[in-house]
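Example (one chain per record):
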Amino acid sequence: MNRGLVSPTEWATTRTRLVLRTLQGLLLGTLLLVGLGPVLWLAKAAVTPTQDTLRAPLSVFPHGFDLSNLVTAWTRVEIDKYFLNTVWLAAGSWAVQLVVATTAGYALAVLRPRYGALITGVVLGTLFVPSIVLLVPLYLTVVDTGMINTFWAVWLPAGASAFNVVLVQRFFASLPREVFEAARVDGAGPFRIFWSVVLPLSRPVIGVVSVFAVVASWKDFLWPMLVLPDPAVQPLSVRLPALQRYVELDVFLAALAISSIIPIALFLVFQRLFLSGGALEGAVKG
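Predicted structure:
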């Protein structure tokens, strides 16, 4: 029996359908305005002169648009250098997180060591520890190992993501065990099973973990600011606030728009994984 706020009989009436469709349209329009509006405004402001942005911030190109803002931000403000630093930081963090998450998830879900349940409990327990509590000891460790002003100071700590490990472990645990048994009968070892069987079946969850890793690294501010004090190796998230007072508003907004390209592009590429929920299905079943 179908139950809901509106019964099938009420839904069959023209007046009820019209009211509900109108409310749904208003709700959808509000969500688009709240969620997509700031992004569209930033894209518009990036190619709008400063005076137009200050005098008529909601007008659509009252005196035309100026693409030189993007060129100025890319060259004079050296956004190209900081953009490249951000790409390197995000790529390294993504690689480290992916290696740690897939190997740890494979060991706990497929190989199933003797104390796997205890290890899983410890990993889950770290999710309840506030990251700010670990900031000082982690920083002292980076200083003692001489990794200050190197990308390794950001890459290696990024691998300690308990959320990604648990997510991948649950997905691996949902894979059919018969596939692993058949591979073992054919003479495949643990590494061959991991490389040739598990990873090809896990592309959805790998895509989700990749997006989480890149976006988290792209927007991280506090940790890169602490371990990368040299401006020459700092990412956009650290350099843009420092440069705000020295550049014009239109150039600064253009720099913000450039820095938003990668996260938006990643979402557009992997949006089906999030909207369908297929990549998280294994984690929910686990």
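Caption: The CA atoms of residues 208 and 279 lie 7 Å apart.
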